[in-house]
Amino acid sequence: MKRSVLTRYRTMAYVTAVMLLVLCTCMVFKYGFDTGEDATLLVSQAHGLLFMVYLVFAFDLGQKARWSFGRLLWVLVSGTIPFAAFFVERGVTAEVLPLVAGADAGRDGTTVEV
Fold first, then answer.
1. Number of Cβ atoms within 10 Å of the Cβ of 74
2. Spatial contact of 67 and 76, defined as CB atoms under 8 Å apart
3. pTM for the model
4. How far does Cα 51 stand from its chain's mean position?
């Protein structure tokens, strides 16, 4: 597996998580204080587009890492739960990094134990 697959996922996981927190803040202002309706609309649309990109990259990573359906579903859903994507991203990185390192070592011509 290429390192770029993991890097794309990690970038979109952080971007999606931050945008979800910004969206939650906008929703508090919109419904709690009756202000920021236009900002909420813009942030929600941006988050929706970025979340779709996140889903594509997470699915791509899951296919290459050969995750079970349950694992893949948890990673995909974590982008909808505030703060969850930060924790799930750390676990995914710890799980996938040895696969990336193994692919890098195999490309260098060294023997990799499987």
1. 15
2. no
3. 0.82
4. 8
